[in-house]
Every structure is written in structure tokens, then in C-alpha cells.
Amino acid sequence: MADASHPHLDTGRAGIILAGGRSTRFDGIDKATATVGGQPMIHRVAASLDPVVDELVVNCRAEQRDSLAGALLDFDVRFAEDAHPDRGPVFGLRTALRATSAEYAAVLPTDMPLVPSGFISHLFGRLQGGAGIVPRVSETTQPLPAVVHCRAGEVACTDTIRAGDDRLQAVMSALDVTVLDDREVEAHAGTHAFHNVNSFDDLRALAARR
């Protein structure tokens, strides 16, 4: 029997964008709307996810919603607002997972605008019924981008929160995710695709690289 909060469980694919951070190294400016190649960063992330998922879910704070909606006019987006903001990405991920009835979700942060759609599609294809999959980049296992089973991911987030941990790495460990090795990652994306934009210096470096 379906859970009343998820009346149509386990169908399709969702794309989740985690955008609820405070962007403290952006001097109070929301980095999700910072421009990369003429487009808001969150628009580029949505464009990567949109071709390979059935719906887009954006986790954010309530006060971000209008500006993010303006940056995402090209997409049909569901917003999953944090009831208790500033509690970290694990809370944000759980909020987004609870907002979808999809079976699996690809998860990207708003500050990773170069991940290609083909790589996300490859993650979905390689998961093959498991609980989750993440890449190893430069010999380090990354928590994002990830594809996770939505209900298993929600439980793993709850368990991680109850353990007093606020790291996405702990969620992925709880899911016992498959790790895509460096060679396969390089073949389908290249390490440059995982460039994080955490500061204006990162944004300038990204612009110089393009």
C-alpha cells in the first residue's frame, strides 16, 4: 500500500538541485543566480538534468524562491522549501526527496554547473537497481553528483541526522553506494566537469577555463 504522503511511489526519475546554502563566500549574493557563460548557474544545472529526468525539484530557502524561479523560467520546476533553513545539505536533500514520488533521483548542487547530461544519464544506467552511485574524482570519492533511490535516500538522511552528522558523505556511506572509478568518470565527463563554484575566485577561474 502506498504511503499517504507519497501516493504514487517509485515511478520515474527526478532531478534534485540543492540550492539552500547561504553562499557566505559570495558576500551575501546568492551564487545560484551568479552568471556562468551568460546564464544563471542554477539554470545551467537545471539544463544538465532536464533532458534525463521526468521532473525537477529545487531545494531552497523560502526567501530564495522568487529569484530562483526567475532564473528557471525555461523549466517546469517544483520547489521544496526548507521548513527549518540553515541546517545543512542533508536536511535539504531529505526535504527534496520527500517532495518527489520518483523512484530514483539525480542530485546536483547549484554550484556545479559543468556536469554534462550524458554523465547523469550514465549514472542512472550504471546504478541498475542499487541504492546509489557516486563518482570518484582525482582519487577521491565525491558525494555529488549522485543518483540515489529516493526512499532509501530519505531513510539514510534521517538516520544521518539522528546520528548528529551533517555530511552528505555520511548519507552516501549509509546507502553503501556504488563508486564509479576515475577512469570511467574521465571517459564520460572529465574531471573539469566537477568544478565547484564556492567563491568569486572560483567563478573567475571557471570563466577563464571556458
Automatic annotation (TrEMBL):
Biological processes annotated in GO: Mo-molybdopterin cofactor biosynthetic process
Reaction catalysed by this enzyme: Mo-molybdopterin + GTP + H(+) = Mo-molybdopterin guanine dinucleotide + diphosphate
Positions of GTP binding: L18, A19, G20, K31, N59, D82, D111
Organism domain of life: Archaea
Molecular function in Gene Ontology: GTP binding; metal ion binding; molybdenum cofactor guanylyltransferase activity
Record localization: Cytoplasm
Pfam families to which the protein is assigned, alphabetical: NTP_transf_3 (PF12804)
Ranges of residues in domain MobA-like NTP transferase: 15-173
InterPro entries linked: MobA-like_NTP_Trfase, Molybde_CF_guanTrfase, Nucleotide-diphossugar_trans
Documented EC number(s): 2.7.7.77
Residues at which Mg(2+) binds: D111
UniProt keyword list: Cytoplasm, GTP-binding, Magnesium, Metal-binding, Molybdenum cofactor biosynthesis, Nucleotide-binding, Nucleotidyltransferase, Transferase
Described function: Transfers a GMP moiety from GTP to Mo-molybdopterin (Mo-MPT) cofactor (Moco or molybdenum cofactor) to form Mo-molybdopterin guanine dinucleotide (Mo-MGD) cofactor.
Record's comment describing the protein's domains: The N-terminal domain determines nucleotide recognition and specific binding, while the C-terminal domain determines the specific binding to the target protein.
Annotated protein name in UniProt: Probable molybdenum cofactor guanylyltransferase
Gene that produces this protein: mobA_1
